[in-house]
């Protein structure tokens, strides 16, 4: 309930069908059940306040406070997040319509949330354009070796029959082989989806010059490392992003 309420709260108390559409890869039944329960005990404004306050509390616990690096990261991430247009990006637009926080830690959280939803909306658009449903996209993640099948099935509510049905649909398109692994065509499509998503998402960085991009990563990398070192980031996520992917010195080299 917390996840669906907090992430959808910028949209307001919209029908579960709307949240299912923009979140893309969850079952309508799960979204409806979670939101029905959540909105029975709270509302979007309270969920937004709880999201912001809990994020700031967690970051503060990691030692992230009003300091030079945080102010730089918040300023540059905010500049990037304010730049792209909102067309075709409902979650990004809903979050950008929220008041901008004054506190640097809250402002940094808000800015990177905007950038996250900006990329997420682009990813959904590319998947839709390529005729890959949200449920099928989870199967492609597993076939690409990003996460184990058992983990994805548990995280995104599949039983064996529904999983096999999506595998069969992808296999009929020539994207999976008989073992459920990506074919050459499937690999090409998966790479294409990620590359186009990245290209569409990089529009945010057009607001920054080269020195500002470097300064943003110089400021953000140590902050990210502190967050990862705290151990709260899951070892694995359905997105295929792990602690090891974030524990990276590349921006400092």
| Percentage of residues in helical conformation | 55-70%
Radius of gyration: 19 Å
Shape: globular
Count of the separate structural domains: 2
Strand percentage, roughly? under 5%
Task: Identify the notable features of this structure and list them briefly.
single chain; 253 residues; Arc Repressor Mutant, subunit A; 13 helices
Brief digest:
With 253 residues, the chain is an all-alpha fold. Helices cover 65% and strands 0% of the residues. The longest helix has 26 residues, at 104-129.
Question: Your description of this structure?
Answer:
The protein is globular. The protein folds into two domains: 61 residues, no CATH class; 189 residues, Arc Repressor Mutant, subunit A. Helices cover 65% and strands 0% of the residues. It has 253 residues and is mainly α. The relative contact order is 0.11. The mean pLDDT is 94. The chain is built from 13 helices and no strands.
Topology:
Blueprint (H helix, E strand, L loop, with lengths): L1 H7 L7 H8 L4 H12 L4 H18 L6 H15 L7 H7 L7 H26 L4 H10 L5 H7 L4 H13 L11 H18 L8 H20 L13 H4 L7
Helix pairs in contact: 1-4, 2-3, 4-7, 5-7, 5-12, 6-7, 7-11
């Amino acid at each position: 309930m917390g996840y669906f309420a907090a992430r959808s709260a910028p949209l307001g108390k919209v029908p579960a069908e709307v949240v299912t559409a923009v979140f893309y890869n969850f079952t309508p039944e799960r979204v409806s059940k979670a939101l029905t329960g959540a909105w029975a005990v709270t509302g979007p404004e309270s969920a937004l306040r709880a999201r912001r306050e809990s994020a700031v509390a967690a970051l503060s616990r990691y030692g992230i406070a009003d300091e030079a690096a945080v102010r730089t990261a918040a300023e540059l991430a905010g500049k990037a997040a304010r730049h792209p247009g909102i067309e075709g990006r409902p979650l990004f637009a809903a979050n950008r319509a929220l008041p901008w926080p004054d506190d640097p830690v809250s402002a940094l959280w808000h800015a990177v949330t905007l950038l996250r939803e900006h990329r997420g909306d682009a990813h959904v658009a590319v998947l839709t354009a390529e005729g890959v449903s949200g449920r099928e996209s989870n199967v492609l993640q597993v076939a690409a070796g990003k996460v184990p099948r058992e983990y994805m099935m548990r995280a995104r509510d599949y039983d064996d029959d529904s999983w096999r049905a999506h595998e069969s649909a992808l296999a009929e398109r020539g994207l999976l082989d008989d073992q459920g692994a990506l074919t050459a065509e499937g690999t090409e499509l998966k790479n294409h989806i990620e590359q186009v998503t990245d290209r569409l998402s990089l529009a945010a960085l057009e607001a920054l010059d080269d020195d500002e991009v470097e300064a943003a990563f110089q400021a953000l990398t140590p902050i990210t490392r502190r967050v990862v070192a705290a151990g709260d980031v899951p070892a694995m996520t359905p997105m295929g992003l792990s602690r090891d992917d974030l524990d990276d010195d590349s921006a400092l080299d």
